[in-house]
Amino acid sequence: MRFCSECGAPLEDRVPAGDDRSRRVCTRCERVHYQNPLVVVGCLVERGDELLLCRRAIEPGYGKWTTPAGFLELGETLAAGACRETFEEAGADVEVLAPHSQLDLTHIGQHYAMFRARMQSERLAPGDESLECRFFRAAEIPWGELAFPAVHFALRLLLDDRTVGRRHVHHARLRWSGAGSRFDAANYVIEDHLKTPLG
Ligand code: ZN
User: Is-above-0.85 flag for pTM?
Assistant: First the structure.
């Protein structure tokens, strides 16, 4: 953000009185333009032992696979946003079953809230943002062709839970190594991982 949305004057970086960090501040009207993290909501849609993935028709990650997910809208609950994104990207009418993972990506100011969900009908119809949508068995998941590290880790955590036969709600930070692509899960480590068993 370069110009004040109130008066149009240029912004500068400085620490406002009484604050403890640098902000974007208007050089004329002094208005502080706070920047806060964005919330990404999405669904891990299970059908038996299969998982729903969509192949992206837009950047970033054109042609790569992702779970249905996108930015939370104002006035929307996390679960409703996750269902909306699933409908928009996959044409799938889903029911949220449980929270699955809360993943912090502080280097890009994003927080992911992922839910486990199931299909309400068999209907699948790729939306404008998807080239195709289909279900994958665990062994078929295209790990090298996933669009986003958070999706990679959410899927990994889900499959790990299946392996041990116990569901959890996960909370963790995904820390970028500081080098290499921010879109490659190999450049991330999972930290401060909290697991709460379900049921
Ligand atoms: Zn201003």
Answer: yes
